[in-house]
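Everyone, carefully examine this protein record:
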Amino acid sequence: MGALLGLVVLVLDIWAILDCLKSSLATGMKALWIVLILVLPLLGLILYFLIGRKKASA
């Protein structure tokens, strides 16, 4: 069960990183979000979709 959860988090992290790269954020902000997602996979993913994605679309 833990392996399946880890795989889901990995897929969502990759999706978040690709979404971040395609966004209209400045290059420095993209790098910051990607580092956050890589260092804190679950928390970074949640924060990106709650905070970062809204800033990218604004």
